[in-house]
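User: I'm curious whether this sequence folds into something compact or stays loose and floppy. Could you predict its structure so I can see for myself?
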Amino acid sequence: MTEQATPISSKRRYAVNETRIRVRYAETDQMGVVYHANHFVWFEIGRVELLRQLGFTYKEMEREDDCFIAVVDARCRYKAPVHYDDEVVVRTHLKNIRDKMIHFGYDLVRADSGELLAEGETTHIVADSQMKPRTLPEKYMNAFRAAVAKP
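Assistant: Here's the prediction. I'll summarize afterward.
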């Protein structure tokens, strides 16, 4: 799978990360269509790249600040099939942020046509390494708030 992060568009009202993925044969099922659970793997790729775009990594959150974001809800609405060797753009953005909760949104689109392939969202609680709820550290909260701010 080829992954490449691209910069956000200046026309957007909020920070959006666009990561391109080329579908590998191993990601498809017997019918030649991408296995449905792979969409959630792609959401994770987009989420990690969005954090990088915001100026930090998930690895830093864990190691430096004992801050983990655990998925408590994940949803995907499938709109069109995806096949081997298709190039897909994963568009990731923040939908909502609170002291102990982060809500991400995703659109998967066909790179050559812009066709919407799937829409998804994940909700995460903020926790420490013992999986006890905690408040999101201020430096991350500031970055997330800036990412959802209207110009």
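Summary: The chain has three helices and six strands. Confidence is low (pLDDT under 50) at residues 1-13.
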